[in-house]
Amino acid sequence: MAAYRADDDYDYLFKVVLVGDSGVGKSNLLSRFTRNEFSLESKSTIGVEFATRSIRVNDKIVKAQIWDTAGQERFEENEVFSSFCNCIGMFLIVLFFDDENSIQDSDFSSCPACSVIGVKYRAITSAYYRGAVGAMLVYDVTRRVTFENGQRWLKELRDHTDSSIVIMLIGNKADLRHLFAVTTDDAKAFAESENTFFMETSALESTNVEHAFTEVLTQIHQVISRKALEGGNDQTTLPKGQTINVGSRDDVSAVKKDGCCSA
C-alpha cells in the first residue's frame, strides 16, 4: 500500500478525526503521517486543524482528511465558548476563551440574525465529528489518566457518529517504554471490550504511525465496499461525487470520486 502523491487524484475521500486529552501527541501523529515531520516543541492545538494525504488501498486511491483539535474540546459544563455572527453573509466565527466566566452569560439576542444562536460548545462537537468515518482515540502511555479518560472520549465519539465508524485506540509515546503507566495488556483488553482496533505508536520515532493510519483507512474502505454491495451499488460505475452512506445517519458518509486514476 504505497503512498500516492497526486493530491487531486483519488477514488475515495475519508474523514478521520483524532480525539484524546491534551498533550497525548495527536498533532505530531498528524504531522508525522501527512508530512513526515515531528516537533519536540509542538504546542497544544488551538481550535481545529486538518491535513490530508493520499495512499493506495486495495488498488484504490484513498485521500484521508484527518482532523485534529485541542484536547480540551470535550463539551463539559465548565467549557465555554461564544459564537459571533457577522450578519452580512451569516458567517459564524467561533471564539474560544480561557476564562470560563468571561462570556458564559453573553447574550446575542440583540442581533436579529443571531436569534437562533443559543449554541454552546456542542455545536462545535457536531461540526467536528460530522461526516467522520474513522477515528483515532489517542492516549499517552506514560499518563494513565489519559487512558482512563478514553471511556468518556468514546462516549462522545459514539454519541456524534454512526455505529459503523472505524475506531482505533492509539497508545502514543511508546518510545518512553521505561515510563509506561498503561500496560499493553490493559489497553488490549479495553480495546477488545469496546470493539475497537488497538496499536501502540511513537510519533517521535515514527513507529507504527504509518501502519496505524493505513489500517484505519483499509478498514474504512472495507466498510464502504460492504455497504455499497449491500446497497446494490457497483463501485466501478458510481457517478462522480456519489455519496455512500455507511450507516443510518445522513451526515456519516464517504465520498467516491469517479473518473480519477484507474487502478
From TrEMBL:
Gene3D superfamilies: P-loop containing nucleotide triphosphate hydrolases. CDD domains: Rab11_like. PROSITE patterns: RAB (PS51419), RAS (PS51421). Signal peptide: none annotated. One of its GO terms (molecular function) is GTP binding. InterPro entries: P-loop_NTPase, Rab_GTPases_membrane_traffic, Small_GTP-bd, Small_GTPase. Pfam families: Ras. NCBIfam families: small_GTP. Belongs to the small GTPase superfamily. Rab family. This is GTP-binding protein. The lineage of its organism: Eukaryota, Viridiplantae, Streptophyta, Embryophyta, Tracheophyta.
